[in-house]
Design brief:
The chain has 51 helices and seven strands. A five-stranded mixed β-sheet has the order 4-3-2-1-5, covered by helices on one side. This is SWIM-type domain-containing protein. InterPro entries: Znf_SWIM, ZSWIM4-8_C. It comes from Tegillarca granosa.
C-alpha cells in the first residue's frame, strides 16, 4: 500500500484540491477564493459517500430530480490516487521509463490527447469511448475505438468493462482515461437520472416505441433475449412476474450489496501460476481493502455473524495466503515480510476468526503436526493457517525426491517412505500436504504438484487398507447383526474432517489429478462446428485414462486416483462441525465434490474402482463413515450413500444393500437439520426404489425408514415419492412399492394426528388416494381403524365421503358385495364419529347413512341427544334444512325448535347471520300448520328482540294460509291468520314492544347525523303499529313520550312532527 501511495504522489499531489475546485462552483479570477458549496451539495456529498441509494429511496416516497442528480453527481470517486492505486499497483522502485508504461500514465496521455469522447452518466453508470491511436510505423495499424463502461457506488468503482478485452487483474488505460475524464471534467459530462426514473415518465405508447426502437437498433444482439423476457412477462406464474419491480443497472447498489472497489480476487491464482510477483502484492491490496470494510466493526460490536458471501470471500482469502507463503521459490526475506503482515493483520480488532461460530474445537492445527506447539488459547484468526504454513520448509530430502522424479521403484527402503512396490509415499497431516499441492499448482509447478498428489493418494490408500485389516482382525468372530451399531464414545481419530475443511484438501487432490486427465480434443475443421463451439465453456471437459509414469499397475491412472481420493474423503467418518456456518460449509463442499463425480462417465475401470472402494468403506471400521462403530455425532453419510447406490445398484451384494439400516439410523440434532432430513429422505427413496423387486430387502429398508425418519413432512414426501415409483404412467402398478408407500402414509397419519400441521388436509386426501390404488382391503382398513389415523371430522368429511363418492366407486369397479361391504364400513365409521363429535360430524353421518333406514335413524337420534348441550343453533339449522331437503319436514321442524332454543338476537343485531335461518324456521312452521306456528312463536318472542326481524316474520305469516305443506296430504282451511288472534297476536305485541325498546335505545346515544336514519326507522315502526287495532294510539303515545323525555333534542322533535304530524 505504501509503495502504491508513493507512486501516486509524484504526479497528483494537488489533484484532489484541483478536482474539488473544478467540480464545484467557479472561483475568483485570482484562484485564491472559491465559492462555498450549496447546502444541497454539502448534503449530497455526505449521502453519496456513505448511504446506499436504495436506502434513500426507501426513506422518502418521492425524491425531487435535482436532489437525485446531485447525489448521483457526487457518487463518483473524487480522488485520482484511488484510480492510480487500482490500475497500477506495483513496486515504486521502477525507473521513470517503466512508470510511463503503467496503465495509469497511459490513461493520462490518452485523456490529454483528447481520446475520450461520448461520455454519458446515467445514474450510477458511466460510459464513453476511448480512441487508441495506431502505431505510425505500421500503416496497417489503424486507430481503434473501445467502448468503456463503469459502475460505481458510494465513491467507489464497483465494476468495469472495456472493449479491449483486458484480462489483467488491474484496470486498463481506457478505464483510467474515462475515470479521469469524469474527475477532471465532471461539469462537462452529460448527467441523467437512473433510467427507471425516465421510464416512469413515459406513457404506454412511448414505452412501446422505446422498446421497439431499442430492439431495432440492436436486433442482432438482443432479439433472442427480448423474446425470452417477453414470454416470461406474458406467463402469469413466471418468476419474473412473482417479483415486484424490475432490475435497473443504473440505479445504484442495493442495501445488501458489497461496497468495495472492483478487484477480481479470482485472478490472483492465475497471476501466481504465471509466477507474477504482482499476484502477492495484489492479494495484499485485497486483504487491506477487506479489513477496511466498515461492516466488520458493526458486525463485531453487535455480535452478528457476517454474511455468507462475505465469509466465503474471507475463507478464500485465507486459503490464498497459504498458497502465497508456501511458494517453493519464496525467499526468506519475502517469507519474513509476509509473516510480519499476517501478524499485523491478525492483531487487528476486526480480523475475522477462523471459526466463524466462535466456539472452541478440538481441531488439529498445522503447527501441532509440524513439531511446533502454541501455548496460546486465543481464538485463531483467518490468517492463522497461513502464519503456520509460512514456517513449513521444502528442504526435506524425501519430499525433494517425490517432487523431482517420476515414480521409480526402490528396494529395501524405509517402509514408511515407500509402499510394498517401492513407490514413494508422503505421510503428512493431510490438509498440510494438500496445501503444498495447491501451492505448487497455484505457482505453476504443475508436474511437481501432480507427483506429490499421487504420493499422497497412495499413502491414503495404504492407510485405508491398514484400517481394514485392523477391523477384520478385531472382529473375526463378530456376528453380522452387530454391523452398523452406534457408538457413544468419542472418536479416537478423524476429529478434523477433510470435507468442510478450510483448505478443502480432498478437492485439491481431486482437481489436480482430474486436470491431468482432461482429453484435449483435435482441432475442429468444420467451420460451422468452429463457430458453434468456439468457446471453451460450451462443452464440459472429457476425461480419459492417463498412465502414471513408472507405474506397473496398468489399471491405475490419474483418473482412477482422482475417483479413489474423492470416495475416501467423502467416506471418512468425521465429527460434525459445531457451528452453523461450518456445518453448511461441509454440506456445500460435499455436494460440490459429488457433483464433480457425477460428471464423470464411468467406464468399466472406474466402475471397478467404485465397487472396490465401496466394499473397503463398508469394511473400514470406525475409520469409515460407512463402517461400524459410528459415533452419534459423526457427519451423516446420506448424500454420499445415495450417490453410491445410484452408481452401484446393479452390482451391489447383500452387504452393501444392508447399508440402508446404517445410514438411516444416525440422526443427531444439528443446525442443518432440515438439509439432513431432506438428504435422509432422498436416500430412503433411493433404497426403496432399489429394493422394490426384493420383498425381504424392501421390508428391511421400509422398517428402517419408519423407525428413523422423524420428520413428518419428510416422511410424507418419501411416501409420495415411493407412490410415484409404484404407479408409473406407462407401466403397470408395482404392488410391493405401493404397499410400502401406503404404510409410510399410515405412519404419517399417526405422527400428525395430535399435532398442528398445515399440510394435514393434503396428507389425508393423499392417503385416501393411495389406499384406493392399493385396493378395497386398504380402504376398509383405514375406515375400521380411523380413530388411530384421523380426527372424526376428517374421517367423515374427507375419508368416508371420498371413498363413497361415485368417482371412487367407478375407479374401483366393484361388484355388489364389495360395494355393500365398503358402504357398511363407511356407515359404522360415520356413526362412531357422530357419537364422538356430533357438532362436526352429524351432518356427514346423516348423508352417509341415507340408504340405510336404521343407520339413518340412529344418526338422527344422535343429533337430537346432542342438541341441548353440545350443538349450537347454526349446526342444528344446517341439519334441519338438510332434513327438509330430503323430505323429512317434521324432523326438520323438531330440529328447528331445538335450534331456536339455543338462539338469541338483541335489538340491534339486524344483520345477524342467523336471520335467514329464523325466517326459514318460521316459514317451515307456517307451512306445517297453525299449531306448529303456535309452538315456535313463544320461542321467537323469547329469544329475538330485533324489531325489524319480528315485523318481517309477522307480515310473512299473513301472506298465505298455514298448513299448505302438511305431511298428511289433506287440504286444510285456507283462511289467513289474523293479527288480533292467536298465534299472531302474541307476535304482534312482541314486535310493538321491541320497536318501543329499540326506539329508546337508539335515542340514548343518537347524534344529529343519524336523525334521518332514525326517522326512517320510525316510519317502519309506524307501519307495524298500524297493523294492530289500537296501533295508532300506541304510536301516538310513543311520540308523546319521546317529546317529554327527549325534549332537549329540538331539531329531532321538529323532524318527527314534520314527518308524522304529531
Amino acid at each position: 500500500m505504501a509503495a502504491a501511495k508513493r507512486l501516486c504522489t509524484g504526479f497528483s499531489s494537488n489533484r484532489t484540491a484541483e478536482n474539488a475546485s473544478k467540480s464545484g462552483s467557479k472561483g475568483s479570477k485570482s484562484g485564491h477564493f472559491r465559492k462555498v458549496d450549496t447546502l444541497l451539495d454539502i448534503c449530497a456529498k455526505i449521502v453519496a459517500e456513505n448511504i446506499p441509494f436504495q436506502t434513500v429511496e426507501q426513506r422518502f416516497d418521492r425524491i425531487p430530480e435535482p436532489v437525485q442528480s446531485r447525489i448521483v453527481y457526487w457518487s463518483f470517486p473524487r480522488n485520482e490516487k484511488d484510480i492510480c492505486m487500482y490500475s497500477s499497483f506495483t513496486n515504486s522502485g521502477k525507473d521513470g521509463a517503466e512508470n510511463q508504461k503503467l496503465p495509469f500514465h497511459q490513461g493520462v496521455r490518452l485523456l490529454e490527447n483528447g481520446a475520450v469522447d461520448n461520455v454519458l452518466q446515467i445514474g450510477f453508470h458511466l460510459s464513453g469511448t476511448v480512441a487508441e491511436p495506431g502505431n505510425p510505423l505500421y500503416s496497417a495499424d489503424v486507430d481503434k475505438t473501445y467502448q468503456v463502461s463503469i459502475s460505481f457506488d458510494r465513491c467507489k468503482i464497483t465494476s468495469v468493462k472495456c472493449g479491449c478485452g483486458n484480462k489483467d487483474i488491474f484496470w486498463c488505460q481506457h478505464v483510467v482515461a474515462l475515470s479521469l475524464y469524469r474527475i477532471r471534467k465532471a461539469e462537462s459530462v452529460q448527467l441523467r437520472v437512473p433510467i427507471s426514473e425516465t421510464l416512469l415518465q413515459m406513457s404506454r405508447e412511448q414505452l412501446q416505441k422505446f422498446a421497439q426502437y431499442l430492439i431495432s437498433e440492436h436486433h442482432t444482439d438482443v432479439l433472442p433475449t427480448a423474446q425470452k423476457i417477453a414470454d416470461e412477462i406474458l406467463c402469469a406464474k413466471s418468476e419474473i412476474n412473482l417479483l415486484p419491480g424490475a432490475p435497473d443497472p443504473t440505479a445504484g447498489a442495493s442495501i445488501d450489496d458489497d461496497n468495495s472497489w472492483h478487484l477480481d480476487e479470482e485472478q490472483v491464482r492465475e497471476m501466481l501460476r504465471a509466477r507474477d510477483s504482482n499476484g502477492a502484492r495484489m492479494l495484499t491490496l485485497i486483504t487491506e481493502q477487506f479489513l477496511a470494510d466498515p461492516r466488520l466493526l458493526v458486525w463485531k460490536s453487535q455480535g452478528q455473524p457476517m454474511t455468507d458471501k462475505c465469509r466465503q470471500l474471507w475463507d478464500e482469502l485465507g486459503a490464498l495466503w497459504v498458497c502465497v507463503v508456501l511458494n517453493p521459490s519464496c525467499t526468506q526475506p519475502d517469507k519474513e515480510h509476509w509473516q510480519q503482515l499476517l501478524d499485523q493483520w491478525s492483531k487487528s480488532t476486526v480480523c475475522p476468526l477462523e471459526d466463524p461460530d466462535m466456539r472452541p474445537n478440538a481441531e488439529v492445527t498445522l503447527s501441532s503436526l509440524t513439531g511446533s506447539s502454541s501455548s496460546s488459547n486465543k481464538p485463531r484468526t483467518i490468517f492463522q493457517r497461513a502464519t503456520e504454513a509460512s514456517k513449513l520448509m521444502w528442504s526435506n530430502k524425501h519430499l525433494q525426491l517425490v517432487l523431482k522424479e517420476d515414480p521409480t521403484y526402490y528396494d529395501n527402503e524405509d517402509s514408511d517412505l515407500f509402499d510394498n512396490q517401492g513407490l514413494p509415499l508422503w505421510k503428512e497431516h493431510l490438509p498440510t500436504a494438500c496445501a503444498r499441492v495447491d501451492a505448487l499448482r497455484s505457482h505453476g509447478y504443475t508436474q511437481e504438484s501432480l507427483r506429490l498428489a499421487v504420493a499422497i493418494v497412495r499413502t491414503l490408500k495404504r492407510q485405508q487398507r491398514k484400517y481394514q485389516e485392523m477391523y477384520m482382525h478385531q472382529n473375526e468372530d463378530m456376528p453380522s447383526t452387530s454391523r452398523g451399531f452406534i457408538s457413544r464414545s468419542p472418536l479416537t481419530s478423524n476429529v478434523e474432517g477433510w470435507i468442510g475443511h478450510a483448505l478443502d484438501p480432498v478437492s485439491v487432490l481431486f482437481d489436480t489429478l482430474i486436470e491431468a486427465s482432461v482429453r484435449h480434443e483435435e482441432p475442429r475443421t468444420d467451420p460451422l462446428s468452429s463457430r458453434l463451439f468456439s468457446s471453451d465453456g460450451c462443452l464440459p471437459p472429457r476425461y480419459h485414462h492417463v498412465a502414471i509414469p513408472g507405474c506397473r499397475d496398468r489399471n491405475e491412472s490419474f483418473l482412477t486416483l482422482a475417483l479413489e481420493v474423492a470416495l475416501i474423503g467423502l467416506g471418512q467418518q468425521r465429527q460434525m462441525p459445531t457451528g452453523l456456518y461450518s456445518q453448511e460449509k461441509a454440506c456445500k463442499q460435499e455436494e460440490k465434490l459429488i457433483s464433480k463425480l457425477q460428471s464423470l462417465e464411468l467406464d468399466p475401470t472406474l466402475v471397478a474402482v467404485l465397487r472396490k472402494q465401496s466394499i473397503l468403506l463398508l469394511e473400514g471400521g470406525s475409520y469409515s463413515g460407512l463402517g461400524v462403530g459410528i459415533h452419534s455425532e459423526s457427519y451423516p453419510m446420506h448424500t454420499f450413500a445415495k450417490y453410491l447406490f445410484n452408481k452401484n445398484t446393479e452390482d451391489l451384494d447383500d452387504g452393501l444393500n444392508n447399508l440402508g439400516s446404517v445410514m438411516l439410523s444416525r440422526f443427531p440434532r444439528w443446525f442443518i437439520l432440515g438439509h439432513i432430513e431432506s438428504q435422509q429422505c432422498e436416500l430412503a427413496c433411493t433404497l426403496l426404489a432399489a429394493a422394490k423387486d426384493d420383498m425381504m430387502r424392501l421390508r428391511t429398508v421400509l422398517e428402517v425408514a419408519q423407525r428413523h425418519v422423524h420428520s413428518s413432512s419428510q416422511l410424507f414426501k418419501l411416501a409420495q415419492d415411493v407412490f410415484k415409483i409404484a404407479t408409473p404412467t406407462d407401466a403397470p402398478k408395482h404392488l410391493s412399492a405401493l404397499n410400502a408407500a401406503f404404510e409410510l402414509g399410515l405412519q404419517v397419519m399417526r405422527m400428525t394426528l395430535m399435532t398442528m400441521n398445515w399440510r394435514r388436509r393434503e396428507m389425508v386426501r393423499w392417503l385416501v388416494t393411495c389406499a384406493t390404488e392399493v385396493g378395497v382391503p386398504a380402504l376398509i382398513s383405514i375406515m375400521q381403524s380411523w380413530y388411530s389415523l384421523f380426527q372424526p371430522i376428517e374421517a367423515t368429511g374427507m375419508v368416508a365421503t371420498t371413498i363413497m363418492s361415485p368417482a371412487t366407486m367407478l375407479q374401483l369397479n366393484l361388484n355388489f358385495h364389495q360395494q355393500e361391504e365398503i358402504a357398511s364400513c363407511a356407515r359404522n365409521l360415520a356413526l362412531q364419529c357422530a357419537n364422538k363429535d356430533p357438532q362436526n360430524c352429524a351432518l356427514c353421518a346423516l348423508t352417509l347413512c341415507e340408504k340405510d333406514p336404521i343407520a339413518f335413524e340412529t344418526a338422527y337420534q344422535i343429533v337430537i341427544d346432542a342438541a341441548t348441550h353440545i350443538m349450537n343453533s347454526g349446526q342444528l339449522f344446517n341439519i334441519a334444512r338438510y332434513m327438509e331437503h330430503r323430505g323429512y319436514p317434521n324432523r326438520a321442524y323438531k330440529l328447528a325448535l331445538l335450534a331456536m332454543k339455543n338462539l338469541h338476537l338483541a335489538y340491534n343485531q339486524d344483520t345477524h347471520p342467523a336471520i335467514n335461518d329464523i325466517h326459514w324456521a318460521c316459514a317451515l312452521s307456517h307451512s306445517l300448520g297453525k299449531n306448529e306456528l303456535a309452538n315456535i312463536i313463544p320461542l321467537l318472542v323469547k329469544n329475538v328482540q330485533c324489531a325489524t326481524v319480528l315485523s318481517d316474520i309477522l307480515r310473512r305469516c299473513t301472506l298465505s294460509a298455514p298448513g299448505l305443506a302438511s305431511a298428511d296430504g289433506k287440504r286444510r282451511g285456507v283462511k289467513l291468520l289474523s293479527y288480533d288472534k292467536a298465534p299472531l297476536r302474541q307476535l304482534m305485541e312482541a314486535t310493538i314492544c321491541a320497536y318501543i325498546n329499540t326506539t329508546h335505545s337508539k335515542l340514548t346515544h343518537i347524534s344529529p347525523r343519524h336523525y334521518g336514519d332514525f326517522i326512517d326507522f320510525l316510519s317502519k315502526a309506524r307501519e307495524t303499529f298500524l297493523l294492530a287495532q289500537d296501533g295508532h294510539i300506541q304510536f301516538a303515545q310513543l311520540i308523546e313520550n319521546m317529546k317529554l323525555v327527549y325534549k332537549g333534542k329540538k331539531k329531532l322533535m321538529y323532524l318527527i312532527k314534520e314527518r308524522f304530524g304529531l
